[in-house]
Design goal:
It is built from four helices and four strands. It is α+β, with helices and mostly antiparallel strands. It has one domain: Fe-S cluster assembly (FSCA) (GMP Synthetase, Chain A, domain 3), CATH 3.30.300. The longest helix is centred in the N-terminal third of the chain and has 17 residues. The radius of gyration is 17 Å and the shape is globular. The mean pLDDT is about 85.
């Protein structure tokens, strides 16, 4: 690899790093006298689909963590997107937060885009792999 190729690769890596913005979405849930189950939150996340692929974000393997506070119903979701250049990276977190906010027994919902670990097709659920013919 010559110096020009090396510089080009370094510039591309820098551009990709700049594209990895922090996206955080917040929504207010429907708190009542019980805390929502993790299964209810997952079902809500399954109503949000990646518009390019048409598969929900949970089965796409984009949701990495669902962390609930058992004392007050707060929910933190760490998720990713398929690529740092994903055009819906700024939209999907809010869609996910809004979907969770409809679940009874949730309080403050925060959804964050994280970049590590990087998403790969191995993250797909078995159902999603079947839908994609894999």
């Amino acid at each position: 690899m010559d110096d020009t190729e090396k510089q080009l690769l370094e510039a591309l890596a820098m551009q990709e790093q700049l594209e990895k913005k922090d996206y955080i979405a917040v929504a207010e849930g429907k708190m009542n006298d019980r805390i929502a189950s993790k299964e209810e939150i997952i079902e809500a996340l399954k109503t949000v689909s990646d518009p390019e692929i048409g598969i929900n974000i949970y089965d796409m393997g984009l949701v990495y963590d669902i962390i609930q506070d058992p004392t007050n119903g707060d929910v933190l979701v760490n998720m990713t997107v398929t690529s740092p250049m994903c055009p819906v990276a700024g939209v999907l977190p809010q869609q996910a937060a809004d979907a969770i906010s409809q679940v009874e027994g949730t309080n403050v919902i925060e959804v964050r885009i994280v970049w590590e670990p990087e998403w790969t097709p191995e993250c797909l659920s078995e159902d999603a792999k079947l839908m994609m013919g894999m």
